[in-house]
Each structure stands twice: as C-alpha cells, then as structure tokens.
Amino acid sequence: MKALRKKLSIKNMKSKSANTPEYVTLPDVKTIPDAITTWEEMCVKVFPNPQYRRQLGSLQAAVRKHMGDEKFFGELLPKIIKTAKDTPTILDKPIPIVRPKPRPEGDETEDGATSSCYCNEIVLTQKQCLCILANSFLCVWPGRTSFNCLSGEDGTLPSINLDEMFAPLGGPQVAKCRMVLDYFIRQYIRQDELHDPLSRKIVFVRQTAHDVVWEKSDAQLCDVVVHPLRESLDDGHDLLRVDFANAMIGGGAIAYGCVQEEIMFAECPEMCCTRLMFSEMEPDEAILMAGTERFASHKGYAFSLQYDAPHYDTPSPPPPAHAPTQQQPPVSAPAQSAPVDTESDETSEGEPPAESGGQETPKKKKKGVCLVVDPEKEEADKQRAIDKKLAEEEAARKAAEPPPPPKYVNVKDNMLQTYYVAIDATDYRGFGTGKTQFQPALLTRELVKSFAGFHYGSIASIPKQNLPNGVATGNWGCGAFLGDPFLKSILQWLACSQAGHKVYHYYPFDNQPISNELPVLAQQLANNPKVTVGTVLEYLMDSDKVISLYRHHEKTVYHQLMDHFKAQ
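Structure (tokenized):
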C-alpha cells in the first residue's frame, strides 16, 4: 500500500488539523429550547446567530405534505426536543472521531498526519442513533457549522446538522425531509406506544485493505449473477450492498445531493450518524454500516427525486397499545331447566340415595318446598367463584402492564441483518481521455478500494457466521465520474473473488451492453482453469496493449479478455 499511496494523486487530501478533538463534543442541552410552536420561532431558536440563520422552506413544505403543522409542532417536534435534551443520559460514553489508521513509520500520508485517537469500530443502539439525529434535526451539534456539506470548523469532517437540507431549494430536498420525518414518526411509535427500548445495535466499521500481491494471486473467480435491467441493488437484502460513496461519507446526503448514496442515506437515516464521527476516507479504506434500517422509498432520481411511501425492512408494527381491537360481547347460552329425576324424588321419600353413603341428606324448607342441598356442589361453586375473581384480577393486572416489545424478523444477535459498505470511486472528470483510468496506479487504486470494502477484517461486534457471503453492486463510479463500466465491473469482480465471496451480484440498471455481455464473459472465464485473479490482472496491467485495442479496434475489456484466454 505504501507505493500505492505515494503514486496516487487522484485528489488533494485536505490537511488534517493538528488540534482535531479526540472525541465528539456533545451539545449543551441548556441551549436547546424547551418548546417551539411556529416556523418563525423555530428559525430563530434553532439559529440564534443571525450570521448563520437559514430559512426552512424544504422542511416546511415536507411537513405540510406529510403530516401538517399542528401534528408536527404539537406531537412530533416536542418528542425530538425531549430526546435531544436527554443526550447526556443516552450518549453516556464518549464517541471517538474515527480517522484513518495511523501508518507505520515511513508509510504515512503525504502530509505526515497521524491520528490522535484510533478506533475503527463504533457500536451504537437505535436509541443512540435517534438521539444523534434529534440533535442533527435541531442543528445543535457544536463546532460543526454546515459549509457545503463539510464542517466549517474542520474541513476533514462532514457536516452533521441538517440545516442545508432544510433550506428552501425544494424538489429533492423536500423528498429527503419527508423520508427523515418517516424515520422519526416510526421510531417514536415504537418507543412510546409499543414500548420498544430501541436497543438493537448498529455497527459502523472503518476498514483498511491489507497488502495483496495481486498479480500473483491464485484465487479463483467467484460465480456471477447479472440481474435484470432496472432492478435495484436495494433488493439484495441478504447481500453486502455497495454504497457508491463520496470520500466524505454521505456526500451531499443531508444537503442538496440526490443520487445513489444521498438517496440511500435519506431512506436509511441511521447511516447519517457516520458523518458525526468518520473523517474522509483514504484510497485504501471503506466504511461498513451494519444493522441500519430503511424507513422510506423513493420515486425518480437526481433532480426528479420524489418521496414515495414508508418502507419496512421489518414487518409493519401491530396496533398501538392504546387502541384495543373491537370485540363483540360474549353470547350467553340460553338457560335450561334442570331435568326432573323422578327416580331420585322417590328415593328421597324412602331410602337414602346410594351415593350418600347411607347418610341422610339435609333438607332445606322454603315456602313449603323441600330442596336438597349438596355440600360438595356448594363447595365447588364457591371455588369456581374464587377462581373467576382471581382470573379477572390477573387479567386486569396484565392489562395495566406495558406489552412486551415487538419481535422483528431478520434480527440475529440483537442486530438487524442489513449490511452496506461505502466505497468512493475515482472522479475522472478533468483527466482528459477516459483511457487514463487504465494506467496501473489508477487501476490498482480502484481494485484496492473495492477490496477494502468487500473483505471483512476483524469485526469484534458481529459474529463471522452472520456476515453475508455475496456482494451486490453495479455501475460504481460510471456516471458523473466517467468511469469505464466494463473495467469497473471486472475490478469489482476480482476484489469480490479475492475477498472470498461465493457470488458476485451485478445490477447493470440501465446498461444494456453490460447486461448482455457480462454473463457471456463470466461463463467463458469460469470454464478456463488458467483464469485466476492474478492472471486477469496481469493482462489488465499491460495498459499499452489494452488501451491500443480499445482505441484502434474498439474492443472492450470484456472482448479482450475473452480473446486472450481463448487463445491460451
């Protein structure tokens, strides 16, 4: 990795401040208002400094479409404020700022920076994520003034307050605000009405790729599944799903961004917690996000993005405890007259009944009628009455108790089984010809970045057997960043194979050539015993040959590889 870091000049890394705090600074709860009842009041109380005051047009439009001002100010916002005020209790342990792993001597980053605190794994509960996002909603995280998706006080950290998303730019920002409202509404229903402690864990891991001698790798290529066009990798529920990330995790998710990563973070707001504690990723790093839940779905893409509907990674919640199901009153059986036993009547006049054991049964006179009293029956009736009363008291006691927390599917070891990994692609805009990306250093950078995301290192808080054994990805870095989809799909396949996954799931979305040709390539290479990760990469590293065939014969990397291994 040392040589790779020295060769790469893909972007200018911002200098890391020497006085970067080791831990996140918590908000001062005394500055959080006790109540907010109007938009004007919210604007002034959330932004007391006129220099940084923002309008809230997108949030206002979202609230009025989603729930109305009355419910927002009367029900939802007070709960958000209460959660934020409980921050010292909920976030009861220091939260580290997770920077790149300190490099060994002679292998540091170009500016020589090292970390004042290194911890690569953060475990939070749903409740703690709710608290972080409540503070983000009220824009009270200190020292993190939003400045074009970054923290104004420290440009190596992303923004965390939601003010740039609330600003009145409309369109996609309104849609994302509605998705965030869905998150708060559902979590407070779970907490307040279903008595869910929100104790499931959510795990964030900063992963670094270990050294691999790629050209000598003898790892076999894993199986490939190419999914139908327009199918989304969001559907890869049991797989490690790839976030086409920005190096600054989340990108413009809580501002104006509206492409794959930003939409994913709006639908799964717990992912935004990474922005509180993770600095910019290095070329050999990725960020794993496990246990996050999706709360909303969308329509459209980019500037046509719209909110669609709530989404449930877990089953929809049962009816609230305060709204019992209507029940019909019990129907009583019609009273029946006791049958007349003439034989026993005769016996009462003469010999005592056989079952009385020869003892005379006491008689009770009432208005001239002789009634037979059965002591055993009378005792049994008394016991039934006592049992009934005890049962009613037990039912009343249980009715007064809160119901048990709801049980959710797809939860193991107290974590929702969802896995996402953020990997940032190289932005080739401004690199001149797109064939520049075939240069060995740039090609290796994308390979190492993918491997950092797909390879599971040592993760203490997730049992190894729970980790998915397949990757769901697609045209990573092939949109605005101008990456070559044929090359990128192969590099991700190599990284997936080297990481030991069994299946590589590719979602071409709207790329018809990839959809048609990748299955053919995969079948041909799978049947050739000479094909390994190393032999494929060895061919790709001969960049002059690859680029020449690309330029002069219009042969994609797919066709070149098929021709090369077919000839062997």
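Confidence is low (pLDDT under 50) at residues 1-20, 106-118, 319-366. The CA atoms of residues 11 and 426 lie 9 Å apart.
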